[in-house]
Amino acid sequence: MKTLLNISRIIVGILFIFSGLVKANDPLGLSYKMDEFFEVWGWHGLNSLTLAFSIIMIAFEIIAGVAVLLGWRMKLFSWLLLLLIVFFTFLTGYAVFSGKIKECGCFGDCIPLSAMQSFMKDLLLLLLIGLIFAFRDRVVPVLSSRNAIVVLFFTGIFSFAFQWYVLTHLPVVDCLPYKKGNSITEIDY
Asked: How far apart are the two ends of the chain, measured CA to CA in Å?
């Protein structure tokens, strides 16, 4: 069980860090996706907050991924991740079954997933996070609490600083079909 728990932690941690970093490359893209969901649901009053929601959610994904890899405060982070993945699974399920939203934006524009692919990914993550949640008391932290806090502090600084950089300049990696060097007339849609 310990091996399965550790493999689950590694997969979940790396996936959350990777997903957060891909979205951190273009936080505006996630805010546009939030706008799309709010538009479908008629929640227009939240549209002015989507960039703030996006930045906070991206930072949380990266920080939570690192916390899970470190095994730090697993009682807290297993609850937070479980709530987050239940929410994400609801969103991707809504996208699949309503047909109103074609992509969830889980990995930004760099790795476009269909609504069904995103839903299946979230179901797998729900199982893995469920396992982590069920056995959270068996997770042994990799670092002392003090060292883990230092790592997480700098992870938070990095995630916010990186997002500030790309919002002030441009994404570090441009994944859009009309990026510099592409010919719009030759793009396959």
From this structure: 45
- Domain ranges for the chain: 2-186
Integer CA distances (angstroms), 119 to 37, 50, 113, 164, in order: 15, 22, 9, 30
**DSSP secondary structure, 120-165, as one string:** HHHHHHHHHHHHHHHTGGGPPPSS-HHHHHHHHHHHHHHHHHHHHH
The Cα–Cα gap between 66 and 9 comes to: 10
pLDDT in tens, 20-49: 999 999 898 888 888 888 888 888 888 788
Is-contact 101 113, C-beta < 8 A?
Answer: no
| 8 Å CB contact between 54 and 34 | yes
Chain-centre distance of CA 67, in angstroms? Answer: 14
pLDDT (average), residues 174-180: 65
